[in-house]
């Protein structure tokens, strides 16, 4: 993991000190009176062509418009799973607006005497709301450039453009005599303080590392990704490429999945290329397929969560923020975890990392509307669950390890490699991904209304309660008289009458948070 914290905390502290010092010098001492004297004379005429252009620019650069741009960038970041950057941008808006309002009321400084009478120049003067907003926007857009690892030339050109716009706002407010010069500079300090504080509070790592090159060893990463799960492939590629450059790694090997292959062929290419790290970007299905191919290879897997559930990532503590997940993938620690071999009837074996089961869970996965899932996320499963609980139970023969088989009439029979499902609900609280054992959960409702009580017992982590049975074993077999739907890691797989699950202990290496 990165040992430095970036420039945001230091920038927030320095800018805050400078704002306080500047405010004291401006409002409590005559030290900066010479700067303020520049606003004593008349500026442009409001009715002149120049005045009308400046008035239009003042309206276009008003805080309402500028903060709307920041909000748009926050939405842009959210769609790209840059969650921390998104929340930092969103939080900076009310903090900046509130700070300007309170400080203006506290200081009570009037506008210059020759202020051009415009709607954008009403009220009190210190600090400048326009300059605060422009500065917040500049810092946040600049941070987005760094976080997404844009090319150095692109970043520099963007920062240059932001600087030009910032100075244009400064000049506009000065020429309209809307503020004293000290108001404008004070607004700049306040904007830096607010934006940097928001970035620091949400732990956005803003620090462009110097590209390195390790001459002793050439390391390369293979990137297996599902393009349907990546909303902005350009930004995604820039991020991964930038992380490689900054660590002295070779350019990444890009391996795209498609509708006919969910990642097996792409991962085999990465394995043949003998990459040092495999990044897997997609949902649980893509992650499951890629990890199955990498089991026993000694190649560590870095998970870049890009699906709806992201259950393996959540259970291993891998951040859902794309920038943080990349940090963990490159700089985290290696953890060896189990893989579950799943055989349905006489078919070829499949593999699970999270949970596999028959009955209600499979029905939920099969009946969840994919379009609804894109809109409301995990909440889409609730609608499917309401339909699944009305299905009648099925007869099952359950064999757990070396124990005698038992007959049950069940609604759900599941094996778990990890404990939590959506919403961090612990359905198998004793499950550990590296203990070499499967956790078995069997739910036996007599009627649909029993599901409420069963769910309560599961959430209460009751070991064995009416309607709920738990066990642990290395091998588990479920057999039914009639075909029953089954699922693996959230993917509906069809139906079967026999499901055998076997734990393959610690055959997969995954990057998780922590230092090597």
UniProtKB/TrEMBL annotation:
In what residue span(s) does the DAGKc domain sit? 257-346
* Annotated GO biological process: phospholipid biosynthetic process
- Report the GO molecular function annotations: ATP binding; kinase activity
Q: Where are the transmembrane segments?
A: 7-25, 53-78, 85-107, 127-147, 159-178, 184-202
Cofactors that this protein relies on = Mg(2+)
Work out whether the entry's keyword set contains Kinase.
yes
Superkingdom: Bacteria
For this UniProt record, give its keywords in alphabetical order, as a comma-separated list: ATP-binding, Kinase, Lipid biosynthesis, Lipid metabolism, Membrane, Nucleotide-binding, Phospholipid biosynthesis, Phospholipid metabolism, Transferase, Transmembrane, Transmembrane helix
Xref: SMART domains: acidPPc
* Recorded coiled-coil stretches: none
Q: Which family does it belong to?
A: Belongs to the diacylglycerol/lipid kinase family.
Write the protein's name. Phosphatase PAP2 family protein
Query: Which source organism does the UniProt entry give?
Result: Propioniciclava coleopterorum
